[in-house]
Amino acid sequence: MQVTLKKGAKVAGTIAVLKNPITWIVAGILLLLTSIFGLALFISISLGGDSTFDSGITGDGAGGTAQVSAEVLRYEPLVTEYAKKYGVEQYVQLLLAKMMRETGGRLPDVMQSSESIGLPPNSITDPEESIDVGVKYFAKIIKKAKGDIKLSLQSYNFGAGFIDYANKRGGYSKEVAIEFSRMMAAEMGWDSYGDVNYVDHVLRYYNAENDSVVVKGDGTQIFNVEEVHKIMKQYLGRPYVWGGRTPAAGGFDCSGLMEYAFRQVGIDMTGTAQAQYDKTKPVPEEQIKPGDLVFFSTYKPGPSHVGMYVGNGKFINSNDNGLEYSSVEEWKKQYPFLGFRRIQ
Fold it and tell me: Which of 167, 207, 305, 319 is catalytic?
C-alpha cells in the first residue's frame, strides 16, 4: 500500500508539472535549439569530406578566358552546370582550356576522364558523363592543391599523388614535374610517364587576366595595330593547319594568319612567308614597333615562318603548337632569325 501511494504521488506531481506553462516554453526552446544544431550538423557534413565547397580553394588566377574551338565551346553549358555542382564554377574557362588540350571536343570522352575512375582510356562514351567525372576529379585536385592552378593541372595529368610530392619540394615547377615523371616511369617500368609539359599545353589556350597581352600602337604604322591584333587574338588556341587561310579551315598556318588578319583592314598580304617577306622592308631591331613582322627560317632555307610583333619581346603566330604568343628570343635559339620587317 505504501508503494502504491508513492507511485500515485509521483504521477500527480508529473501531471502538475505538465500543466505548468513554463514547462512547455522551456521544452519548446530546447526542441528549437536541438533542431538548429541538427540542421547545422547536417550542412557541415554535407559540405565536408571531398566536397569542393570548402574554403580551401582560393580561386587565384581563375579569372581568365579560354581561347578554344567551337567544338569545345558547345560543351560550355554542361561544364558550367557540373562546375557549379562541385563548387568550382570559377574555373569554367580553365576547364574548357583543359578540354581543348585533351580532345579538342572531338571525342566522346571529351575530358579524358576514364582513367581517373580506374578505367582504360576512352572507356566513357557519353560526353556528359565525361564532363561530370572530369569536373568532379578536377574539383578534388584543385581543393587539395589549395587553388594552385599549375599544380592542379599537372596533378590532373600525373595523378593526385604529385601534389604531396611537389609540395615537399617547394611546389610545382617544370623540374619537379620531370623528376616525378622519371621516378614513376622507373617504378612502372615504362619509357615515360605522363606529360611533363601538360601545364604549358593547357595554358596556351587560357589567357589569365593578369597575363593578357595588350598591344598599343603609336600611330606610325599604316594600319591600326590594335585592330589587327584583336582579329588575330580571337583565334588563340586554334590548331596549326597547313594551308589554312581563313577561320573556316579550322586554323591557320603562319602566313595564312597574316594574310587573313591584314585583309580585314584592307592590306594585301597574300602569299607565303617568303612572299610576305618580299612585300616588307627591313627594320633595325632597336627601332621595332608593335605591328612589325618577324621572320624565321624553319623547315627550309629562307623565310618559312612569320608572325606579328606585339611588344615586350613577344610575337603572335601560328606554329605547331597552334595559334599563340611566342618569345622572339626563345625562337632565336631554335631557328635562324631573318629579322624584323615593316609593311610599307
Answer: 305
